[in-house]
Amino acid sequence: MNPTLRTSPSDRTRAVRRLRALTLRTALAGLAAVGGFGYLAALTYAGDKAATTTAVTTTPSTTSSTSTSSRTAATPSPTLQAATSAPTTSTSRAQVTTGGS
User: Fold this and answer.
1) Dihedral in degrees, nearest 10, Cα atoms 41, 45, 48, 51
2) C-alpha angle 9/11/16, rounded to 5°?
3) Which residues pair with 74 in a beta bridge?
4) Which of 1, 57, 64, 89 has its CA 20 to 30 A from that of 73?
5) Which helix H or strand E contains 11, and what residues bound it?
6) In tens digits, what is the pLDDT along the chain, a chain of 101 residues?
7) pTM for the complete prediction?
8) CA pair distance 27, 55, nearest whole angstrom
């Protein structure tokens, strides 16, 4: 059997410093990787071509037959969906029982 060597306080201090430095370097490398991948993604992804704004011509309906005007408004392509109904709540009281046999 090999006897284990006792570590001195200076050995433990050195080991903790190495572990702290390794942890700090790993965190910084992770941040740099996230930033680098984000930058690369921003450079390479041009966006969705269908999501551009389009000009829509509308003609407002009026009661006068001589007045006809045309307006152009920029509207985004995506449409909104209808909201779902709100969740229902109950008014009963809850009871918690612990222990027992």
Assistant:
1) 70
2) 95
3) 55
4) 64
5) helix 9-44
6) 666 788 899 999 999 999 999 999 999 999 999 999 999 999 998 777 676 555 555 555 555 545 445 555 565 567 777 777 777 777 777 777 777 76
7) 0.41
8) 47
